[in-house]
Structures are given as structure tokens and as C-alpha cells.
Amino acid sequence: MKNDKALVVFSGGQDSTTCLFWALNNFKEVETVTFDYNQRHKLEIDVAQTISDELNVKNTVLDMSLLNQLAPSALTRNDIDIKESDGEPPSTFVEGRNLLFLSFASILAKQIGAKHIVTGVCETDFSGYPDCRDVFVKSLNVSLNLSMDHQFVIHTPLMWLDKAETWALADELEAFEFVRNKTLTCYNGIISDGCGECPACILRRRGLETYLQR
Ligand SMILES: [Zn+2]
Description:
214 residues, alpha/beta, Rossmann fold, 12% strand, globular, ATP binding, queuosine biosynthesis
């Protein structure tokens, strides 16, 4: 792997930034791809670009605004509130989003000569996204290889980690401060520790507190 190139699916959040550091540790060459789907906060794109620049990684932004047309959810429309109820996907759910992201990422990966695709999807904090499950990613990996007659390897370093373990991984990669201070997870568009009140901030903070107490 050390001599290969990898493409990281990158949003500038805690998870994908940890994945970016993981990729920089494991591959000779790394690029990132960020999807612009008219997110609630355009800031996400800027943060992804800024972090990529800072780590000397080439970032490609792909226009996925068609998702806005397909999925009127809280992530893409400013007039819908973010709600979460037990047993149901949060209202930020965009059906098939990860399927599309990984498919588009693989087309770009082949073009730039990257055999490896890295994504921060995670089954542990499974919030109802069926296309974030390990079995789906493995199945898609086979389909992508067949569709493009190419031997991609999709890596999911966070698949079996909880949020505290993701902080531990960032720390192992000597990226704890970087991830804590420079990433954007908050639904309200506040970098680092965020607004502290939205579901993303609460999940992130719980993981951080658990990790710091260990
Ligand atoms: Zn927040």
C-alpha cells in the first residue's frame, strides 16, 4: 500500500479528517474529493479545501447539487428543521447518498490513478444509513471493480470504531489537536467544538469526553 495512491472522500469533518491523516500515513500519494450538494453550510466546502491545502493534498470539489433535487432534507434545505427520533434515520438523511458519493469517487479515483478509496463511514454509530454498512461497502467495491474493470480497494478505517475510538485514532496519528481545532462537524456551521447543541455536536462531544476520561 505504501507505494500506492489513495483518494479520500472528504467533508472536512472529524471523521473524514481522521481518515485523511490515516491515508497520509498509509499511502505514498493522497488526494481528496469533496461533494458540493448545496449543504446547509457552504462553509463545509471551504473547510475541506483549507484542510487539504494545509496538508498539501490536492482537493477536487464535485458538483452534486442534483441531490438537492432528489432529497428535500434538512442538510440541503434551510427551511427544514433537523429532527431525530429513535429508530428512524435523522431528517438529514439523503437516500443513497453514500452509494452515489463512492461511485463518483471511484470514477475520479480511476482517472487520477488511485487504486485506493478511503471513506469515513461507520457502522458502530449506525444512525439508520443502510449504505454506510460494511456489507454494503464490500458489495459496492465488487460492483465498482466490475463496472470499470479495475481493482479498487475501498478502505473504511472507522467502520468498527465508536466516536471515542475515532478520537483515539486521531491521537495515534498525532492529529488530535488538528482534528479538534480545525474540523467542522456542527450542523450550525461552527468549526471545532461547534455550537454544542445540535445532534452532531452532542455526538462529537460525548465521544471526546469519553476518550479524555480513559
Ligand atoms: Zn452544533
